[in-house]
Fold:
Amino acid sequence: MAINHIFTIEEHQTGLEVNKIYRNEYRFPVEMLVKGRKYSGVEATLNKQHGKKILMEFVLKLLSNGPKQYKYVISQMLQKFNWFDLSDALEILLLDGVIQITFKNLNPRKSVSWLPKIVGLDPRAVESLLPQQPDIDLEFIELRKSVINLTVETRNPLKKRILQWIEERKIQDQSGTLIADVTSFRKYKSVILTIAHYIYLRDRGQTVPLRYLSNQIWDHPRLLCTYKNESALAAEITLDELDSVLLNDINSTLHAPLVSISPVEELQRLVDQLLEPETSQDAILSSVSLINSYIHKIIEIVGDSENKTLNLLDYYDLHIKFTDSGSAEAELSILIDFKERIAALKKEILKIGHIRHRFEMIVLEEVGSGSFARVYRVFDPESNKIVACKILFPRTYFKQIYANDGDEYILRFKREVRLLTKELQHRNIIEVGKIQLDGSPFWFTMPLASFTLEKWMKNNRNASVDQRMEIFKQIISGIKYLHKREKYHRDLAPNNILLFETNHGLEVKIADFGLAKDTKSKSFFTGLSKRGYGQEDFTDPQQLNNLADSTHLSDIYSLGALLYYLLSNKLPKRRFYFSIMYQSVVMKAMDKRNKRYQTVYDFEYDLNECMKLDE
Structure:
């Protein structure tokens, strides 16, 4: 029976062992320790048919570092679970000998009124929950092997010191001050491997996030960071030097983690494609083997123990269901059910800590921000590459800034992803990598540019006209492709033009299609948006007044502005005061709409003619 979240138990209940503590000055007992008589093991209790395994695991995790005050345990648990489930779980754990509870008597002079005081693990359960202690001698053999493999080619004097630390089983600085030893083996091993990886990566001019390294070594994202100061001290380097190789991350500042498990995401996208109206029955049947290959990859990632819990092998029955379905309607029903099962599977997999850590994007720094999204430099642990990641602001941001739920911006973001994945493939338009549109936060990755055009211009004020015009030709190439497909960018500006350094020179890619217009789209809502309508210096004045009034002529205006900016290093509003090469082309592109170039081809033709005259 529960009154005001106070756990009560019948002390004479069969299966309980009760020990009471008396004091001479009190008539009644002052404390009572209650535990279960029989103990069958933690796993046996957790796997009973009570439906409270997750709740119980949370209780055990809370108590794993020692007994806790009852009030603290309850306050923590009630943030995630309801009281009635919690009360039932505590009773089961108590009767099964997994936990024990100390009660105090509120008024031992006059009566018995028990109130729970301390909750702790039963000593019989503690042993099974403790991590297995490592074989230290074996650990040292493996540690030495790892260090030698990492430093085999280096001439760094730190190599000799690391091997000496392993020989002596302690880490000291040059003055003899002890930094770590085997009494805290985790700290000792962390410092040694952090320094060994630092040497290995620095010698090769490579970098990785410290969080990634921590996941690889300890399956824990923050553990190595705990000992970062000791690692720098032992190596006699500054924290800045260590951070230049083992990169800092800002994951803790994010609204939510960015996790993408590729086979699950690919499976979701495949099923979405199969659910599209134009998909034939033959296409559905021919895709079953591909679906099974994704499931096989998921099983490999998840592993045997979790595989049994998630029943992943059940997903292989899809081929049989399709074969027996006999109709398109039945196949559609099967696919809809399968889609729901995948979504549920994804949620369960993300609860498995080591898998979530393995696939979580590691965010290094912010590189840009717009009206409804931010772009970050991130490390993708699956590909071991640093990429860019565009993340839509959370709904709380839109409520605070715009007093709405951000539905308009979610539509824009999804439209941008659709355009870049399904409709636009061109060497001068940015491509998308991983995508997450299944719940907040929405995000996608793309190649990380060497510069934006804005940054390149600041760093290359003495660049030749040929270099500048080569950049502009690639911009025009991308816009011609876009307009040919009846789509308009509507936000062409220096920070949306990305430059990539390659062996063949600079490669230009147009990015940020959040304002892009698709003339074939039926979306009326985003077309009437009044916010985020472009960057004033490079935006068609009529578009600034009304985004819905933008056309392909808006992009031509922006092209003229970009040409002036490229050739003058000045904002296009200065065009009336400082003339440049091809000034006539700029002025016509930025003229009133009825006097402006009517197509990007007309613009390009005039520009080419002017360039021929200068040859």
The chain has four domains: 16-129, 136-248, 262-356, 451-613.
